[in-house]
Amino acid sequence: MFPFCGDGFSNQNTEECDDMNNSNNDICLNNCTLNICNDGIVNFVLEQCDDGNLDTSDECPAFCRQARCGDGYLKPDREQCDDGDSEDYDECVTGNNCKWAYCGDGFHYKGFDPNFQREWCDDGNISNNDFCLIDCRLNVCGDGWLFNGVEICDDGNLIFGDGCDHFCLDEVCGNGFAQPHLGEECDDANYVNEDNCTNLCKRATCGDGYIQPGLYEMCDDHNIIIGDGCDNFCLTEVCGNGIHQPWLGEECDDGNTVHNDGCTNNCRRPICGDGIIQGYENCDDSNSQSGDGCDQFCLFEICGNGIHQPWLGEQCDDGNSNNSDSCRNNCRTPRCGDGITDSPWEECDDGNNMYGDGCHSTCMYENCYDSDGGIVGNVTGTTTKGSVSRTDYCRDPSNIEEFFCHERTYVASGPFFCSNGCDQGRCR
Fold first, then answer.
1. What's residue 342's pLDDT?
2. Which residue of 95, 262, 407, 427 shows the fewest CB atoms closer than 10 Å?
């Protein structure tokens, strides 16, 4: 078979292409030639249009694309310009259908010279009361044009003191801007007197007549005088407010209702006799009298509290339970006959003052005896530590006491009966 156009095989000698179909709207025409721009046949694969000419000012320019603003080809019937870009800030505004830029078109024309700003703004309207004036300048304070929602006034200058200040705000207290030239200390733009700035644009202070909880005021009587119920800190003059107010007779004020913490609820320093048990006190019966169970030191009036209380009959009180020291547990001083042996000066103590029972009334053992029956003066005395010889002496006509009968410091003495009486200090 001989090759032919439309057989699907490109004959390089006679054909440019062969797509084996009958459509002229693809890349290969029915005569097996390539479908190219400006041949008058639209290639829907690559072309939007094809009017068969190279005229760039009609609806299908030379590149077979539909004419549009920004394609770089001027359409005199509907375009003033076409610089082939999509920028809206140069001389030819693409966003405005390729019209020359002008003030009021709504497109900010900046130009390409960084040292020359053609327009400062462009909002596309003819109002001078918004951010952009009709001459495409920004609306600023002092230009004489009121910027609604931003400026309260604009008198064409930036001078304050003429009713409209340099922020274009009315020069009145309450505009939200502190204006010292008007004597304002603050301005919070509200009508609340109980915050940190009063309606007179003054800093809130104690004594201004307004109670400011934020300043911890409890009262405010228009002064800072004490003694009138509201003190110079604007606190109510009562015991318990946490402020020491001596003019009220307070000795302290800790601001709580705890009695025994160093400051009582009546704002007095704790003392013995105030009726409140504090610190070291065992008791407090609201007086400083002793003998009523609670003494003048607010300690229980009992033996063993460590306080010598003579009115209770105490001879001593060492506050301990040691019965062998210098103060007995019954708060009496040690003595011979109290039943407790106090060495080294006592050898025994049987709780009485009798002799002849093994423990003499002097609390010495009764183990010293007259070895010869009291007939001769030189007798032998015996102690628990050994024996020594001493001389008997008479103290009365019938009794002789061993005046010395001891070894070193161990003393033992006792009465002995002389059956024949005494003669010059010796038994007969």
1. 86
2. 262
